[in-house]
Amino acid sequence: MNIIVVGLSHKTATVEIREKVAFSPNQIEKPLRELVSLDEIVEGVIVSTCNRVEIYATTRDIAGGIARIKRFMADYHHIPLEILESHLYNYHSEAAIRHVFRVASSLDSMVVGEPQILGQIKTSYGYAAEYKSSGIILNRFLHKAFSVAKRVRTETKIASSAVSVAFAAVELAKKILGNLSDKTVMLIGAGEMCELAAKHFLNSGARGVMVTNRTFERAERLADEFNGEAVRFEELFQHLHRADIVLSSTGAPHVIIGPKDVEDVIKRRRFKPMFFIDIAVPRDIDPKVDDLENAYLFTVDNLQEIVQANLAQRNLEAEKAEEIINQEIGQFFKWLSSLDVTPTIVALRNHFDEIRKAELEKTLANWKDLPPDAEKRLESLTMAMMNKLLHTPTTVLKKAGQGGRVDLYVDGLRQLFELEAAPEEAEELELEA
Amino acid sequence: MSQIFFYCTLVLYGCAAALYLGYLLHTTQGMATWASRLVTTGFVTHSLSTIHRFNSAGYLPITNMHESLSFFSLVIVGAFLLFVRKYKIAILGSFIIPLALLMIIASSSFPSAIHELNPALKSGWLWVHTTMAFVSYSTFTIAFGAAVIYLIQQHFLKKKKFGALFQKLPSLDTLDDINYRCLTIGFPLLTVAIISGAIWAEKAWGTYWSWDPKETWSLITWFIYAALLHGRMTTGWRGKRAALLSIAGFLIMLFTFIGVNMWLPGLHSYNK
Known about the structure:
The structure holds two protein chains of two kinds. Chain A is an alpha/beta fold. Chain A has helices at about 15-20, 30-35, 60-75, 80-85, 95-105, 115-130, 135-155, 165-175, 190-205, 215-225, 235-240, 260-270, 300-365, 375-400, 405-415, 425-430; strands at about 1-10, 40-50, 50-60, 90, 185-190, 210-215, 230, 245-250, 275-280, 295-300. The longest helix of chain A is centred in the last third of the chain and has 66 residues, at about 300-365. Chain B is an all-alpha fold.
């Protein structure tokens, strides 16, 4: 049994193509059932996100299975196969395992280390399990992918540092102020980056937001969005001491907060530290503010530097992640191969044993006046013969390792002896991972 | 017996210190875990060594440079283990454990023979006075470690240098919090130590205070930390100011502890 992967991603197709091929999450049952009803496909899982659409399946016929899935994707979405095909990639066996491990660990994502993809795959797997389109192999496979992703995330720093300016701001604030849960944010002016940063701060547990703007209505509207408090611009310095974090982005052509102002504010706060981010150009906050002991001032340039450094680090960490994935592939592939060997051995043994028992019975039935221990001796004789005959093929099979040879032997045995064991039996046979 | 445990401790602290320093350069979780295990084991052997010595000698082992340096090192490691458990910043070890190691190495360089106890020292007050002093010293040492890290972090933040070390070190807020906590534990203990010392002095020599160099210098130490505590509680002295004062206090305390014993004559002098 082989694992195959067919799909496209942001690396091979633009968003116009991707949206044509996307499977809607609330209508995933129909395509899943159709997928596994195809002749060549035994198990199937469909993963469809805004950056990729991939189908994972198991099949006995690799080439046939891949072709079938391509046709399925084209037909289901009513796109000519010739157009779709140029964007599709496919993998099988070890390469397929590697691909899925990499995707789950966010190594194939637009931003390496992003956290969403793992959840998305888990949800897709949930549907496949619910509609029973996945079976023992894909179940085991995806569970393994999840644990590999977890290993990558905990053992490397691939996801631990901020790669957007807004996140970098939050990380910096934590380094200065510690826990953000009792801290207040003051938003001066407006602007996408400011508002995004404010949102991140709130998500990280900040207690509340104050918003001030030359236009009070604007401040009110924004404050509403954040469930915060609007402050009149003229009253800025009466409320500034209540803020631990200040995000400033006004259109003012000159500085609005100077070192003297901050000195007074800090004193009023009994020297509790304050964190300033100045996004405005020209700057809103006098750089001399940073010279004050308990005030920490950063510009967007500072934050960008941090982001660049973190991105570079992520790429280094990605190498470590590939290492981990290499280790895990070997292990999983070994399990996958053994899946075929053990039931085959059992099936072969059962086959021999049935013949042995039948012949023994026939002989004993027609033989009168046997000495008392004859039956036992004949039993031992036939058992010993059978075991000796089976010993060599069993050992050779077990030692054959992974890859094409095992499949060949297993297939050969099944054909030659007309054995019937199917992969589903493996579940009942209590295999060790 | 006590000697064997002592040298085991030396080796264990040495390895732990090496790992902690390595951790500073290369944060792999494994290093921190192993360093922590080594330190904990070292603390156990160190405690056993101290207990054995106490049994053989019949008194609390703080009567000469060897004993008191070893005891101080023991208490520092104990305090460190408690703080690491509470705050979970292993990197504190990179600053504290080498210090504890230096202490115990210094301790091993002094003669370690067990002497008959000076009759003036035979008192239950010996227990109270010295243990309180040592525990307070150990918290001031932790505060010192946190203060040094604080200054380093603040330097990075002001100079906008966000390298690997910056990422590893804890937040300014955590460090300031440790400083405050050490102060609120150490200062009362130091006060008790000084007062119990005075009471014992009255019983042993007839006067509460004789301006012995040790008494004088511990008073100076006491004033520094008193000022710091007062400043923190009233006018909000925190951050850099608190860090600098903690470092100053630590250095004065070190002199009070070691310098006085070694170089200034008096009641507490080990050089008779």
